[in-house]
Amino acid sequence: MSLLLRNALLLDVTTGEYTEADLRCAEGRVAETGHGLRAPEGTRVVDLAGAHVVPGLIDAHVHVTASTANLGSLRSMSPSYVAAHSARTMGDMLERGFTTVRDASGADFGLADAQAEGLIRGPRLLFCGKGLSQTGGHADFRGRGEHLNDDHPCCAGVGRVVDGVDAVRAAARDELRKGAHHIKLMASGGVASPTDRIDSTQFSMDELRAAVEEAEAANRYVAAHAYTARAVNRALEAGVRSIEHGNLIDDTSVELFLRHEAYLVPTLVTYWALQAEGREFGLSEQSWRKVDEVLEAGLVALERAARGGVRLAYGTDLLGGMHRHQNQEFRLRAEVQQPIDVLRAATTGAAELVGMAGELGTLAVGAHADLLVLDGNPLEDIDALADPKHIRHVVQAGAIA
């Protein structure tokens, strides 16, 4: 299968400059770029008439199995029912221009294999399996009166409860055994969990380090959910590669990000959406009241991190019917960043985070042929990405999707 795009404006995300050229895809990769490229027999040729072309987008924090904001209810749902919802969610993500996503707990090798084999439409799926939580932590969804927690591997929940260094090691090894691209730790309280506080720290330092050691032994890494500077800083000191959310970081956090060459994955849009629609899509009243604690701080944290030179990746963390707001994150970040910097977070930055620099997030020859054809220049108007109606074509693995 070969595809030739003629008369395009190709964006080099690293330099922020466009080049007028043709681009040819073959066998799922960018085969060549240049002027007057020849179309081999059987090649589909599309004249873009000067349209802007950018790399396919990468969302580094999604939950494709989260058909509801009531994450605790997923445990009692049929896995096949959850998979059906996930397939629709993934297809919609692809339509919005996201050709790769990193799932931050819930998705497993079954969904990743189904996408890779073409059984379902959707972005390339980099999964972690179930996130690891301490008792009473962010992925322990039991109410105060519940005493049983079904962590059977066939259940469709987003987390598993583990306590102690040995249990953390065993759980991390088990997720890695099943092909996890990374390990997810709940290192602080959160909005969607019923019995913790956002300002709590979770897991001991020895437990955090145990997960990092197991991930590194498998040439993988750890992503940690954390909000406050205290929780973020503990995770960074333990060797975590990416901090998810980080709404309440401080200047010490910035120093630690730089020292450890770690990444921050802000998820501003989820709080924007939860405040407006969370209860409509299953968020409990108790959890909804937590949203204000982190909503206003998110932009401040992003600005502090960007100003300090922290490595950034694009993330959304949307749940249930709120997934449709995935591109709104571009508009929110553009309040404190230049459009090219927001786009870098969703392309080269995210690709570097997941260990696929040069493979994803670029139009360079040899990279996966994932790209978007836009009606508009996102460097002049972020709405070209923030509103999916401006996406003329989504190309995935060299085919118009």
Overview of this protein structure:
This is Amidohydrolase family protein. Residues 53-398 form the Amidohydrolase-related domain. With 401 residues, this protein is an alpha/beta fold. The chain is 32% helix and 23% strand. The protein is built from twelve helices and 18 strands. The strands form four sheets. Strands 1, 2, 3, 4, 5, 16, 17 and 18 form an eight-stranded mixed sheet that branches. Strands 11-12-13-14-15 form a five-stranded parallel sheet. Strands 6-7-8 form a three-stranded parallel sheet. Helix 7 (268-277) packs antiparallel against helix 9. The mean pLDDT is 93.
Could you tell me how far the N terminus lies from the C terminus, measured between alpha carbons in angstroms?
13 Å
By secondary-structure content and strand pairing, the structural class works out as alpha/beta
User: Judging by the overall fold, what is the CATH architecture of the largest domain?
Assistant: Alpha-Beta Barrel
CATH topology of the largest domain: TIM Barrel
Mean pLDDT: 93
InterPro entries: Amidohydro-rel (IPR006680), Metal-dep_hydrolase_composite (IPR011059), Metal_Hydrolase (IPR032466), Metallo-dep_Hydrolase (IPR051781), OTAase-like (IPR057744)
Organism: Nonomuraea insulae
Protein name: Amidohydrolase family protein
Pfam family, one: Amidohydro_1
What does this entry show, briefly?
This is Amidohydrolase family protein. It contains 12 helices and 18 strands. The chain has helices at residues 79-95, 109-116, 165-177, 205-217, 229-238, 251-260, 268-277, 285-288, 291-308, 328-333, 339-353, 383-386; strands at residues 2-12, 17-26, 29-34, 44-47, 52-55, 57-62, 98-103, 124-126, 131-133, 159-161, 183-186, 222-228, 242-248, 263-265, 311-312, 371-374, 391-396, 399-400.
